[in-house]
Amino acid sequence: MIELERDNDVFVLTMVDDENRWNTTFVRAFARAIDEVEASEGAAALVTASAHEKFFSNGLDLAWITSDGDHPGGDRSTFGAEFMGLMGRLITLPVPTVCAVNGHGFGAGFMCALTHDVRIMREDRGYLCANELEIGLTIPVPEVALFRHKIPASAFHETVILAKRWTGPAAVAAGFVEAAVPLESVRSAAIERAASLAHLAVNREGFAWQKEQLYGQNAALNHPHGAAHMLKHATDFH
After folding, report:
1. How confident is the model at residue 238 (pLDDT cuts 50, 70, 90)?
2. Regarding the domain delimited by 2-198, which CATH topology (the fold level of the hierarchy) does it fall under?
3. What is the mean pLDDT of residues 142-164?
């Protein structure tokens, strides 16, 4: 399901489970790979990629959700908490993260891409899309919060309310994907970008702290006070 290798300072996590649909078994395999990344020391970065030619991740495993229980996807009752917890770990991972989006990323796949610090997409094919409304679901509040943090306001509305399908070039223009490149360059461009950022993880504690200030409890971006008040009372904010 998940392969993890290391290229100098860059961990490369490759999803190898066909369309990489999310179920409990897949979440746990992914989490074990993240455990290994977190256990490392010194300069490091993570690239998340897919082995599928067409899909980065095709979202929730609907066949598993609708199965009679005889399915290798694991315990359905724990999925929500475990999946959301994993996404929370990724967005605050104490190393720089780069997502190599080589194809379609729908629903949970789009979420996974957004938890990374940088996204690089294929330029000619493939969409990122929060398609929950199109398939009769709604977007959970924590997922909406993730989108709001990572996607500029106008594009956020199109994403959450209009289920817009974002191509690589359109996502770059909207500001939430860093680059769109040819398919054969997606993985190498992501690894190169990750390598350029790996030194930021030498101070793991500081890197983790900075991410928590953006995305953790009482995050700076959500604080009720304005910047002027916070600057004048800086000792109150740590």
Report:
1. low
2. 2-enoyl-CoA Hydratase; Chain A, domain 1 (3.90.226)
3. 94
Report the distance separating Cα 118 and Cα 10, nearest Å.
14
Q: Which residues contact 202 (CB under 8 A, 6 or more apart)?
A: 42, 43
* Phi and psi torsions of 46, nearest 5°: -120, 135
Contacts 24+ apart (CB under 8 A), 2-8: 2/26, 2/29, 2/30, 2/32, 2/33, 3/51, 4/33, 4/36, 4/37, 7/191, 7/195, 8/195
Cβ-contact 205, 49 below 8 angstroms = no
> The pTM is what?
0.94
Answer positive or negative: Cα dihedral of 99, 78, 19, 143. negative
Average pLDDT (169-174) is 98
Provide CATH 3.90.226.10 ranges for the chain.
Answer: 2-198
How large is the average pLDDT for residues 25-34?
98
**Whole-angstrom Cα distance, residue 208 to residue 23?**
27
Contacts of 213 (CB under 8 A, 6+ apart): 219, 220
